[in-house]
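As described in the Methods, two query proteins were run sequentially through the folding procedure within a single session, without resetting any intermediate state between them. The first query and its resulting structure tokens are shown here.
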Amino acid sequence: MDVKPLSPTVSVAPQIRPGDVASLAAAGFRAIVCNRPDGEGADQPGFEEVERAAGEARIEAAYLPVVSGKVTDEDAARFGALLDRLPKPVLAYCRTGTRSATLWALAAAARGRVLPEIVAAAKQAGYDMGGVARRIANGGRTPTATGEIRHEVVIVGGGAAGIAVASSLLARKPDLDVAIVDPADIHYYQPGWTMVGGGVFDPRWTAKTMASLIPPGAKWIKAAVAAFEPENNALVLDGCRVVTYGRLVVAPGLKLNWGAIEGLPETLGRNGVTSNYRYDLAPYTWELVRALKRGTALFTQPPMPIKCAGAPQKAMYLAADHWRGAGVLGDIDIHFCNAGAVLFGVKDYVPALMEYVDHYGIHLDFQETLTRIDGPARTAWFTRVGADGMTEAIERRFDMIHVVPPQTAPDFLRVSPLADAAGWMDVDPATLRHRRHPGIYGLGDACNAPNAKTAAAARKQAPIVAHNLLRDMGALREPDAVYDGYGSCPLTVERGKIVLAEFGYGGKLLPSLPGWLIDGRKPSRLAWLLKERMLPWMYWKAMLRGREWLAKPELAA
């Protein structure tokens, strides 16, 4: 028997036989539902035979036959009612398990479970729910009207990458029909949150209304995406509205998975637990740094990939610099608990960073992943991987802890046909076109291109996507634009100095300015001024407005 769990209480399977029932009972199942009509196949046992075996095994059996490919709303409602009535756990079966999985998906939607969760659970069990995505998004019911909207170009995501590519497109072709899909009211300049946590920026300065940033000429569809249907050139919004497109750009950013660390959501913003990865928590980081006079400060970094790989240690350096200035650095035990095996992924910048690590007396605890936290007890637990590959649990007390959560692609992308096996938007790393679906492009943090996930990367990617999309539409005759993997990470090693890391694919150094002006491998006052004064201005006034200063795309030879 190939039994596949969909939830803690419901599993599905292909056709079972009477002789299987005793094993199912021994495995703990208390009820069986048959969703296959009798006589559908020549080798199929009848329901009465299965029901008789169920009686002997003292488990319940129910018959809800459904015609293959014709699961109705009424079928799903009756299946949901059966699940409510029957003792748990329940096994439902049909010829392959697909009908049973579909019935479960629609019943789960009717009870309020969200589409990405349902699709992910079914996908894990080996069943594709793409064909009923619209019904799942509509609460498990067949839509009577989709409210279909169509645009020439649809961009999913109103973050840095999404707005930048919309502006780049309209700068090249002002009459282009472009729509941006995003439910958020506020757009955040996330690179500024490190500076907020270091007491440099006012947090309010890092936020603007989304309405004020949508480029002139673009439409704003204020809604969340529930599913992609690339075969129909369509995407499904929450509430089952459907948007169709000629070209699609996917730039939804990352999901911060706070819940992946046991105990973390309950204690964030309290008990000395903070993170610069959230707008509302970055000010608490600065509050904790100023208040700490002695004790232990932990700074964590989860497994890659994450947005701005240098941000976890930026927070640490700025905190240590403040403690040095306050004369208390010697009384504070600082630990950098990094799930990786190196301080920074591009070796050219490590010597400069190590000078600060030594200067501040920071303990580097490599290959340690935060797994659990107890805020009131001021205790965190890590899993450490040893040189022999064996793991051990490490318990650490803290007075403050700066936590960076694990990060994934958003659920609606991760379970979609656009994702690779790991759940990331599957693009060609040079052209940023989707590898399998023509007319679809991706950029920003959710892509699987092996570049650093930074706003600087999105600034370079936006013109490339705009150029290649318009070329594919026939609006441009030039060769493809190509992306070299450029990303930038201004590492704030002290207040007033930055190690300006700029690099591309394979760790190749890609400085924007001549070495005599800024040598990115050394701490620089000028790089600090660039981070503090110029980069925010470039973000708001250039990148998000289609002005490609220092970002003009390179064309293929």
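Immediately afterward, the second query was submitted; its sequence and tokens are:
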Amino acid sequence: MNERIDLYINTARPIVDKVLEGYNGTILAYGQTGTGKTYTMVGNADSPETRGIIPNSFAHIFGHIAKAKENEKFLVRVSYMEIYNEEVRDLLGKELNKSLEVKERSDIGVFVKDLSGYVVHNADDLDNIMKLGNKNRAVGSTLVNQQSSRSHAIFSITIESSLTVDNDTKVKMGKLQLVDLAGSERQSKTQASGIRLKEATKINLSLSVLGNVISALVDGKSSHIPYRNSKLTRLLQDSLGGNSKTLMCATISPSESNYVETISTLRYAGRAKSIQNHAHMNFDPKDALLKHFQQEIEELKRQLEEGVFEIGGDEIDADENDDLSEESDIEIENEKEKSKEKSKKKKAKANKDEMHKEKSDAEKELLELKAQEHEKALKVAQSEQDIIRAKLQSLENKILNGGENLLEKANQQEQLLEKSIAELEATNKKEQELQQTLQKIEAERIDIEERYSSLQEECVGKTKKLQKVMQMLMGLKSELADQQQEQQREKEGIYENIRSLSRELALCELVINNYIPKEYQTLIDKFTYWNEEIGEWQLKCVAYTGNNMRKNINEQQKNAKEEKEYVDLSHVYLSYNVDGLTEPVRGKTSRPKTSHSGVPRYYQRINNIN
């Protein structure tokens, strides 16, 4: 059996099966940079045997739909995003560099605002979307890996299903998150600098937060889980200790030079294995679209059957409209015959006939206008009917019926998965038989060893057992020493981050203290508050302070060009002087002198807010 297919069948397949039953599932790939995380998740599309976990899940999902019952309906939608430098980006959106906000609601939990989602009809649609997103993903070259992923990618597949039994429809929804984490890396090995170093710092920071979350969940004594310290952990909040079946694939390097990173990865995954999640089936979720689509389809079908449409505020029945048109034609013909008979009596009653003829012509024109209006109404009704039919067809195409073959090109992949499952079952059966045989042999051997014919044999036997115990003890001591060394390295890394942040903080304080007086710093602190929704600090009434007001002033100055020559002050900033006035200082001059007595206008505006 191929190793990649073997990996999917043994590890990922049970998770996808649970998602199809209505549970949430997450599969993460974690490891050092260059160890094959992306290859594990995506693989190589050249042949079915080399495809990764994500493409194999496509064939698995639509193979399940093809085997489902006819009274079961499905809706499959997908989204693809990345976390690059702690910014969430939509890999399927039009604005690739736009940063999206992470929100949270009590009914649906954590979500990404304005993230695009697409309804898919078969495995090929999913495959094309994955390829499009991979092209837009941030990738860079380092000394360790020429195609290093510089972002965490999350490929989400939402599967909604409804089963109708005796006019009772039950909807359930499962969400599968396939996460390709960026690799942890050491600057001493990658020799990263500039943008690559900044990316590596953000990657290591988010992975460190992920490790802290895992440790806090395993510890069980922590009252606070730091999910909000990183966008990654916040988006994976349900996957870590929440409502999800979660699997972590740890990728390691066979190189001796990466021994330390390999041990660290295995311990990281070992801690994650101890997390206890609480997954439950999602029945009738509030954000499910399938039930809404089915209700809309029923309403559209009812409108088509009744043939009633709203046009210009009046209800028009399509069938009745045809009858009205025919009646109008008959009335016109009758009126024509009457007018001929009346024309024969023209000589006898000239005045009366003339008046009657004028009246007849007016009635005829009125009937013709009425017929034209009904014809227009009929055309509009038919147009409305066509629109409803098109909308109905579109909604029906989005909903997949059980029992339909939707694999197309993925048939070969599905057949390979089924063959691998059969081979796996045969292998497991043979393994169980061998395990039972081995247990019997081991029991007989132990029984023989326990029977000693003399004290000397007993001494030799117990000495061997003691040596085994000592070997186990030495192994545990060695592992403990390795763990202590790894902990020391992690502490040094944390201390280095603390020192770096302290230097940045000191620089910020130096700039603030040299450019903003103490009383205005206190004022700014007073009007600063923590925004829980976006997870950032914000300043109240910031639109009325600082350069925001200067922009408006500059626009006013531009409008006043006729009266006075406009001076561009966009490159000028303000400083404090002894006289209490502000003076313009250009960026290339020496650092301006500061004084608490100077009060620029934009700080005066902050003060006036109070």
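Residues 309-330, 578-610 have pLDDT under 50 and may be disordered. We note this only descriptively and draw no conclusion about the first query from it.
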